[in-house]
Amino acid sequence: MNSARGRLTKDGIRIYEPGDYAGMAEAGRIAATILDDITFHISVGQTTAELDRIITEMVAAHSATSATIGYKGYQHASCISVNHVVCHGIPADKRIKDGDILNIDVTVIVDGWFGDTSRMYVAGKLPRKSERLIQVTHDALFKGISAVMPGNSFGDIGHAIQTYVENHRMSVVKDFCGHGLGQVFHAPPNVLHYGRPGTGPVLEEGMFFTIEPMVNLGRPETKVLADDWTAVTRDKSLSAQFEHSVGVTATGCEIFTLSPTDIFYPTYK
Ligand code: MF3
Ligand code: CO
Ligand code: CO
Questions:
Q1: pTM recorded for the entire structure
Q2: Atom 8 in ligand 1: which residue has the minimum CA distance?
Q3: φ and ψ of 245, to 5 deg
């Protein structure tokens, strides 16, 4: 009855097989291509609902399926989180203003494999403080990715991210985390973006998961609005996020969601 691939570790983390990386890379490539292509649709006065409509069409044009439409009742092909929205922003008819920063998060299913990625975009002129936040968040993701190799622990990933962010006097969100994925959207482990070295499960070749740090300019606390999705900073400070889906390899990691046109960051024109 177990049609799932590979095996599970004692922590319930699936170990995929060498032949499974290609499926993840294709799903990741399509998710990243959609984020590349939406770059040129971001402008002041645009609504996030319109951006989501365009993303929905792009998903179909790639013969992919949106993983988020219908997920726990969510009805959109993207989450679009503007300014102090930390994550899970629902596309809406509100217009984007000059200087707004936004995260767009897209997850597609291709041939049964999930590609999950998000990045930051800017409308109009980017304020200096927002630019710093985006830079630190992006670099924090790559600090975490640098810790991905067999023998390291998930705590090493979290620690790398947390120390980098806090050294820049910003804060890591602790209420949301990355996750295992593969032939499912969300699976063990919870990939925390903070932690102590050498703690948590040990990384093994064949593990597939996301790293998706959310960083606030102010305090780390969040709250979820009455719509049950939108997470915002409690202190209304700006928040940023970048997300990649990765697989542990024998020597390090493969990033499945790299930007095919190398515009993951900076993404503003
Ligand atoms: N893509 C998000 C993540 O990184 C999850 C979005 S779930 C949704 O895990 F339902 F809000 F779309
Ligand atoms: Co994710
Ligand atoms: Co995501």
A1: 0.97
A2: 68
A3: -100, 130
